[in-house]
Amino acid sequence: MWVETLKSKIHKATVTDANLNYEGSITIDQDLIDAANMFVHEKVAVVNNNNGERFETYIIRGERGSGIICLNGAAARKVQKGDVIIIMSYAILPLEEAKEYQPTIVHLEPGTNRIRK
Known about the structure:
Layout: E1 2-14, E2 17-19, E3 25-29, H1 30-35, E4 43-48, E5 54-62, E6 69-72, E7 84-94, H2 95-100, E8 104-107
Parallel strand pairs: 1-8, 2-6, 3-5
Antiparallel strand pairs: 1-7, 3-6, 4-5, 4-7
């Protein structure tokens, strides 16, 4: 049996921009991508804590150290600048491995998109 389980999470990121005139995706600071063990073009689920929206998209690389969290394309309609979101990726693992797997969780300082120390 295989189980889909949480692989990585960026917790309480603050949306820095929303760009409707783009093909679609979420731009994330490369430092945050690396810290969360995520990768460019990876499918992610996004939850908006401000309005309850949930949607899926994929990651594109943002400038390292910029703190950027920008929703692009249609997803830009589901957020506003300043909204707090959670970004999650998942993996499919064998049941026994999934029971032991520990996801990478990156907590951010409120309003800064900087990793909490």
